[in-house]
Design a protein that fits this description.
Blueprint lengths: L1 H20 L5 E3 L22 E3 L3 H18 L12 E10 L2 E10 L20 E6 L4 E7 L13
């Protein structure tokens, strides 16, 4: 029950953001300006050791997104997600760790709005929200992170 309420709240919050933006989203490059306040999530790990950001091209998004869908299916990671991977909206964020280039994929309930300018951040929500890192040089994905799930606040309470 609690999970359904959290999911519903997440849909409502994301839906409001999406309607305000006004365009559809599947897989997009997030603009660098979205990082002016940093890059962090509240209930899943984000990449560490970031030394700078770079703008991902739509061509890079398309290529990486195709590889991501194959990776999630081939490795069985897609089974950890609530819905098929292609049903999520995905933001592609370019960053550096030293001299190496990486792309972080931030995945969320698909929105009806544009997610190119604002990083979609959700607290909790479980496998409705997830992220994964892509090493541009090696062409490998690693570190699938799924949001935490808000538990029942009364669980374990003895009255």
């Amino acid at each position: 029950m609690t999970r359904k309420i959290v999911a519903l709240l997440a849909v409502l919050v994301c839906g409001d953001m999406a309607r305000a933006a006004g365009r559809s989203t599947t897989a997009v490059a997030l603009k660098i300006g979205a990082f002016k306040d940093g890059f962090r999530n509240c209930s899943r790990e984000t990449p560490q050791g970031i030394t700078g950001f770079w703008q991902v091209s739509q061509s890079d998004v398309d290529k990486t997104d195709t590889a991501l869908m194959l990776h999630l299916e081939r490795t069985g990671l897609a089974k950890k997600l609530h819905d098929p991977p292609s049903s999520y909206g995905r933001q592609y964020l370019g960053y550096n760790r030293g001299k190496r280039r990486f792309i972080y994929v931030n995945a969320f309930l698909r929105l009806s709005g544009d997610a190119r300018s604002v990083y979609v951040r959700a607290c909790d929500g479980g496998n409705l929200f997830w992220g994964i890192e892509y090493d541009v040089q090696s062409g490998l994905f690693g570190g699938l992170e799924i949001n935490g799930v808000m538990g029942d606040p009364l669980e374990g309470l003895k009255l």
